[in-house]
Design goal:
Layout lengths: L12 H4 L11 H4 L12 H32 L6 H14 L1 H7 L2 H38 L2 H7 L11 H19 L5 H31 L4 E2 L13 E2 L1 H20 L5 H24 L11 H28 L1
Antiparallel strand pairs: 1-2
Helix pairs in contact: 4-6, 5-6, 6-8, 6-9, 6-10, 8-9, 8-12, 9-10, 9-11, 9-12, 10-11, 11-12
């Protein structure tokens, strides 16, 4: 049998010099480095932000449906409550703040909020929408040719931004009708009359505002209503054909909106238009004969506005009663 002897082979120093020396040959990461860089772990700050965002989204998902449902139920309260009126006005005023700031001073916005809450409580969303329409159209008419009006000295103060006195003067009759409706004065038999008076008051005021502002901007010839003497634009008690037609169209538009929303019927819409034009004629006569005259310094624009809209509201109620009595007869 052949035998083999094991022979040890030793590397020469020159050959061992070419073998790389690894500090940790067991580590695969050193022997076989990864081609792509490993994804760094997110920082603790980033983790915290992601955790907070996830928790917030989870809370929003859990709470939003119930909160939205409660809010919708509050807005749709029928009959309206003071809580629903205040909440609805708060939401609408926040959303419409850019428009409100353009047409009202800050105290005027406060007065308008009270008016809006009272209107919503008395007549619901339809009544509020009527007043909002009046405000939008009236503000737009006031802004027409503002630079020209300012140059002529007939523009409203503060670039047409009206204060609380103007808000109260423009809505006093409507607010009175709203209070009568809320407290049920006269019972069911008079409830419709208070709503008619409310709509008629704002038809009257919108017609007055539009006729005055459009007359200042486009009126070619302005006449004093008591003498038909030609006078400068902006004279108290002065009227123009252009302004009168614009005011008539404005009252027709607002009365039609009130009819479409169910505040009044078709006949009552016509009554509102007629009452508004009679009241505006009376307001022009008062302005020409008494305003700015000696002994009547107290008769400023706000007081005249209250008289004007009160006449429109009362006339609408009286005409409606006369028409009904004539039909029943």
């Amino acid at each position: 049998m052949a035998t083999f002897q094991s022979t040890s082979i030793s590397l020469s120093p020159k050959l061992s010099h070419f073998i790389p020396k690894f500090q940790n040959p067991i580590s695969k990461s050193l022997i076989f480095p990864s081609i792509s860089n490993p994804k760094p772990e997110p920082s603790l700050k980033f983790k915290n932000k992601m955790s907070i965002r996830t928790q917030t989204q989870a809370m929003g998902t859990d709470l939003d449906p119930s909160l939205m449902q409660q809010a919708i139920q509050l807005v749709q309260s029928s009959p309206p409550t003071w809580q629903s009126a205040i909440f609805s006005n708060l939401v609408i005023f926040l959303l419409g703040s850019p428009l409100l700031v353009s047409g009202l001073s800050l105290p005027g916005i406060g007065a308008a909020f009270l008016l809006g809450a009272l209107t919503w409580r008395a007549f619901g969303p339809s009544g509020f929408l009527l007043v909002a329409t009046y405000f939008v159209i009236g503000t737009a008419a006031t802004k027409v040719k503002m630079a020209q009006k300012e140059a002529q000295g007939v523009a409203e103060k503060r670039k047409g931004r009206r204060g609380p006195g103007s808000v109260i003067g423009s809505s006093a009759a409507g607010c009175f009708c709203a209070f009568l409706s809320i407290y049920g004065i006269g019972g069911e038999a008079f409830a419709r009359l208070w709503e008619l008076g409310f709509v008629a008051s704002f038809c009257t005021k919108l017609s007055d505002t539009v006729s005055s502002e459009i007359g200042k901007a486009y009126g070619k010839t302005t006449y004093l209503v008591t003498t038909f003497k030609i006078v400068p634009r902006g004279t108290e008690g002065a009227v123009s054909v252009e302004g009168t037609l614009a005011g008539l169209l404005a009252s027709m538009l607002l009365a039609s909106i009130g009819c479409l929303m169910g505040e009044i019927n078709g006949l009552e819409a016509i009554i509102c238009v007629v009452a508004s034009q009679i009241a505006n004629l009376g307001e022009s006569i008062i302005g020409a004969a008494l305003q700015e005259k000696e002994g009547f310094q107290w008769l400023n624009n706000d007081v005249v506005n209250i008289i004007n809209i009160s006449m429109g509201s009362i006339l609408a109620v009286l005409i409606q009663q006369i028409v009904l009595q004539s039909w029943h007869a």
